[in-house]
Write a structure and sequence with these properties.
The chain contains 10 helices and no strands. The chain is mostly helical.
């Protein structure tokens, strides 16, 4: 069994989340049956690393570490490494988040849940998740259906969205006769082809909407075969005889 006094070092740098480190350390204590507060404090201060230990000493100064409980030290770490975020900013980020291209429903929901962590929605969390999920979902057809049905809860909206996504992927697999790994590729090719067809149709409408003034044909006058011919009636160049 692993040594209960050994744990990874916490490196105080950008991107490191102190709360996750302490959370994992608490599970480490639970796994090894460590319940004594002084023992927890000693393990934390001995495994956190020299730079983190120095920061902790500075944060709790003038008191020495042995005069504070494990809980008091972890609270001091949390306040230093993760100061309370602005609720307004956190909600702004939450309500701004839309489903991204090729992002699955599950990944979109996981990100919404993460962004809601510091929004302080309280009992209104389910409603907030439902509203942002429905408004931010990329599938317009599914979005219209969810709006028309007025889904009562986030879970109901999520179940329907997951079922729709699964059915769409299975239908693509059946139509293409390919394996599941090809489904995303088929989806991308389909979107690209729609864009190409739309652009081609637009060019064709532009090219053939004008009538050639040289011969009256449905093509660009600059591509007319009579461009270098002289009209035998009016003697002008570039006219049909």
């Amino acid at each position: 069994m692993a040594n209960p006094n050994q744990f990874e070092v916490f490196v105080p740098e950008k991107g490191k989340r102190e709360n996750l480190y302490i959370e994992r350390l608490n599970f480490h204590f639970e796994a090894h049956g460590i319940t004594d507060d002084a023992k927890k404090r000693a393990v934390l201060l001995s495994v956190c690393g020299s730079s983190t230990y120095s920061l902790i000493r500075s944060v709790i100064s003038p008191k020495p570490p042995n005069e504070l409980s494990y809980e008091e030290i972890t609270v001091a770490m949390r306040q230093y490494f993760n100061p309370a975020p602005s609720e307004i900013v956190e909600r702004f980020r939450f309500y701004k988040r839309d489903q991204r291209p090729n992002e699955s429903i599950a990944d979109f929901v996981a990100e919404l849940r993460r962004l809601s962590e510091h929004c302080n929605f309280g009992n209104g969390l389910d409603t907030a998740l439902r509203d942002r999920f429905v408004c931010g979902i990329a599938d317009e057809g599914l979005q219209r259906r969810l709006l028309a049905e007025q889904v009562p809860t986030f879970d109901v909206a999520l179940r329907e969205a997951l079922a729709t996504e699964t059915a769409r992927l299975q239908a693509l697999e059946i139509r293409t006769g390919g394996c599941t790994e090809d489904v995303q590729h088929v989806r991308m090719k389909s979107r690209q082809q729609k864009s190409t067809d739309k652009a081609t149709g637009s060019r064709q409408r532009t090219e053939f909407s004008a009538k050639c003034y040289r011969c009256g044909g449905a093509h660009d006058a600059q591509a007319c075969r009579f461009i270098n011919e002289r009209c035998r009636y009016c003697e002008r160049m570039g006219r049909a005889t």
